[in-house]
Amino acid sequence: MLKRILIYCTLFFGGIVFSNAQTVNHTFALGDSTFLLDGKPLQMISGEMHYTRIPREYWRERMKMAKAMGLNTIGTYVFWNAHEPVQGKYDFTGNNDIAEFVRVAKEEGLWVVLRPSPYVCAEWEFGGYPWWLLKDRNLKVRSKDPGFINAYQNYMMEVGKQLAPLQINHGGNILMVQIENEYGSFSNDKEYLAQNEKIFREAGFDGLLFTCDGPSQMPAGYLPGFLPAVNGEDNPAKVKELVNKYHNGKGPYYIAEWYPGWFDSWGKPHSGSNADEDAKKLDEVLSAGISINMYMFHGGTTRDFMNGANMSRTEAYAPQTSSYDYDAPLDEAGNPTPKYYKLRAIIAKHLPEGEHLPQVPEKKRRTFGLEVIKFSGVANLFSNLGKPIESEKPLSFEDIDQGYGFVLYRTTLANAASGLLKIKELRDYATVYLNGKRISVLDRRLKQDSLQLDSPTPNSVLDILVENNGRINYGPYLIDNRQGITDKVTLHGQELLGWKMYQFPFATATGFKYLPAQNEGDLQPSLYRGTFSLRGLVDTYLDMKGFGKGFVFINGHNLGKYWNIGPQQTLYVPAAWLKKGINEVVVFDQLKGGHTELSTFDHPVLKEVGPPTP
After folding, report:
1. Residues 116 and 105 sit within 8 Å (Cβ to Cβ)
2. E strand or H helix at 245, and its extent?
3. Of 182, 332, 398, 520, which residue is the catalytic one?
4. What are phi and psi of 554, to 5 degrees?
5. Model pTM?
6. Catalytic-residue membership of 182
7. pLDDT at site 365
8. Residue 11: predicted pLDDT
9. Is residue 171 within 8 Å of 4, Cβ to Cβ?
10. Confidence at residue 610, expressed as pLDDT on a 0 to 100 scale
11. Complete DSSP assignment for 565-592
12. Where is the Beta-galactosidase galactose-binding domain positioned along the sequence (predicted)?
């Protein structure tokens, strides 16, 4: 057994120098006004970045950029639905290898603040909860419901196996761990919060635990005896007042989420912040000795179908974009922005005399637009239906054991009929067809759930293609997140029965029959496939402005969603997912047809709000 050697390593604003030949033990504690690392004050200057939103190949590169900006700590959530996509089957490999993410941070001299509370919000599908919890209609997430607690506890035991050994009190670089997340914005059950703490301890998280809430939610969300961090407040006096109030009149003082940017929602203007104002605020916070976590330092991209949505009692359902650029200091592709350099200058101002920031690394890859990609084949969804599930009444996604993607609901109208067709509790977006011809689009954002239907002949086929546009990740409707047609369909007040449901989870884009590209006629949803050849690997952006609504796969990787309503009009393609030689692209479009080619850009387009959905 290697002898464990206790050494004190050189601190660079809390940064650490590690030796492969030694295991480093540290102590980390709460002082009356500051955090204490090995008994000495540590001001955390942290930046949030999520391993799931960054290709694994770029984790180290992004962390080097964080260190060069002056950060000494990385913050990250842990995403339950990424790690347990199927109940009882855990995935901590590839881009889900959170332990490796933490180890890379350690190698780069960065501490980690870990946020594995099962609820993450994060503009992430269902706030991080796995969809399969919803298969039980009566289960209540984020509560003392035994079914939820049992699933949560099983998951946390697996998380603990991965991450508990990496805590600072075990020789690792995880400084502290967050229990729950902004719980005060949801409820105020202190028994539930205490149960969280018990589960975390059983999972092996035996170091410092903390909670975080917005200023007005702190009374409901803090757990007595644990550090209450503040979200969304950057006035130093108010931060100290809040923490003192709920922490026995003392610190340390930590802003767990400070927002030098904001996320985007489909159909709304691009969000952002003023870099000069952000720099001024950061200067004030650091001057006051307060520790801070920038949410986000680097947002990256929400791939696959993992975007969430917001909805409240006063605001309509609002799904978020796949780009999680966030107007952050480091952009979606990992490039430093003007904001990056302004914040870097502020941090440099606060360095101890004689210390300097590392040089900003040069990016190893350039970003190029590629030659136009030609489509060689098209696969009409209606020609690739497969075997249906049959039921008298339409079933939700969860009822047919599907989490994401699309379900095509089909019934036959035995008689000629006309009247109001209403889909009660549509979740979330539907294209409606009569005898193969699209007759309407229904969008939950716009509170659309009905249309006038005229079926002049008997035995007409009614198709309703329903998309999960992102389960709600924040607010009171978090517990009401089943997808698809979740109630019933009526025509002129009469319930329609006798449904067939065809599943399109699109976990991959394989298994479809392609025909030579041609005009599809009635705008039926289709996949378009093409190939392109590369001699060298570059980052690039797909230009989706000529398309309607859908998603894109490149070489088996789901790049995320596009939608012509904007503001996002491009999809970022990381060079790590391309290869020299032949590459394959598959585009699904549910609104527009007749596509023959796909163009690329050397830059993102994130600020254009497009035309209304046709």
Report:
1. no
2. helix 236-246
3. 182
4. -125, 120
5. 0.94
6. yes
7. 73
8. 36
9. yes
10. 74
11. T-S--EEEE-GGG--SEEEEEEEEESS-
12. 525-583
